[in-house]
Structure to design on (109 residues):
């Protein structure tokens, strides 16, 4: 396998119901890896882009979260409906999807 040009990390952390931090999994994150896989596959990007599920990335209140590298672009509140935009506009087109980006203000709250 060639070195990937980009990496997508998708938080799939699960916590028990009622946990004070919640989790990306309880907000629908478990559907995201397959959605990303299908979107990457449909555009034949799988050889250039690596996709990985992760544990907690940190700011759980903003989840479901994904991180795209290089660029250190963090996406928040993701649904399956957002995945095609990220793959088309950012992964393929090189322009991050502004409406989904975690801002500095988000991090502080
Ligand atoms: S559980 Fe996903 S960022 Fe913490």
């Amino acid at each position: 396998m060639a070195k990937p040009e980009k990496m997508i990390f998708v938080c799939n952390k699960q916590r028990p119901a009622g946990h004070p931090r919640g989790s990306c999994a309880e907000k629908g994150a478990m559907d995201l890896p397959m959605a990303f896989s299908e979107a990457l596959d449909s555009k034949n990007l799988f050889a250039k882009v690596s996709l990985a599920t992760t544990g907690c990335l940190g700011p759980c209140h903003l989840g479901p979260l994904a991180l795209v590298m290089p660029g250190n672009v963090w996406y928040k509140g993701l649904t399956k409906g957002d995945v095609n935009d990220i793959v088309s506009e950012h992964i393929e087109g090189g322009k991050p999807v502004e409406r989904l980006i975690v801002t500095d203000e988000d991090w502080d709250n």
Observations:
- The radius of gyration is 13 Å.
- The helical segments are 32-42, 80-92, 104-108.
- The first helix runs from residue 32 to 42.
- The mean pLDDT is 96.
